[in-house]
TrEMBL record:
Swiss-Prot/TrEMBL keywords: DNA damage, DNA repair, Endonuclease, Glycosidase, Hydrolase, Lyase, Nuclease
GO biological process entries: base-excision repair, AP site formation; nucleotide-excision repair
Source species: uncultured Thermomicrobiales bacterium
A Pfam family the protein falls into: HhH-GPD
CDD domains named in the record: ENDO3c
GO MF entry, a single one: oxidized pyrimidine nucleobase lesion DNA N-glycosylase activity
InterPro entries per record: DNA_glycosylase (IPR011257), HhH-GPD_domain (IPR003265), HhH_base_excis_C (IPR023170)
Keyword Membrane applies: no
Entry protein name: Endonuclease III
Amino acid sequence: MTDQTPRPDFPIDAVLGSVRAAVKPFPPAVMFELADRGFSSLFHQLIACIVSVRTREEETLPICLRLFGTAPDAATLAALAESEIDRLIRPSTFHEQKAGRIREIARIAMTGYGDGMPCDRNVVMALPGVGPKCANLALGIACGLPLIGVDIHVHRIVNRWGYVRASTPERTLEALGEVLPERYRVEINRLLVPFGKQVCTGARPWCSRCPVRAECWRVGVTEAR
Ligand code: SF4
């Protein structure tokens, strides 16, 4: 099997059904949780994704709630001093750099689009600090576009399953684009982030209590619990 060659006949419907049931008790991935709490616009989702970069989910949620509590829309956020945005998001990794980017996105949203960002991947990808993961996640959650958000959990798990074989998250995104049914393209991130934190962990996954063990090839797993 070569890079990006999918595993034939992988039972994705059954596997995602089992994962869906398994993650019910766990908190959802942070961008989905923010959407559930009313911050579902493309603007809020993009800002949240920037805050989340290299920052733990447990820290990202309160940071975003504090930021949106102070500045609930692009106009208010753009009017804040960069130093104030920096103070509000300070526990986030690279907060100084992110503060400038967040303020610039707010300014672009307000002046270019009257506070409503268009559901256009080219526009979103041109914003400062927005890469493919944030663009896809935000456009998927906010706009319902069938785009896949591949973070480190999604990349690790679908490769362990043998569903795809890809050496980087970028290649996993390409490979999933070939095989993942459209109906799961947004949901897969919602499911696999909590699954990756609670069951299929980076080190020593909990294979003994995993509901999809029978279907999983456990590619690259050398030590498990
Ligand atoms: S069997 Fe192990 S490696 Fe496979 S999905 Fe479950 S926890 Fe992850």
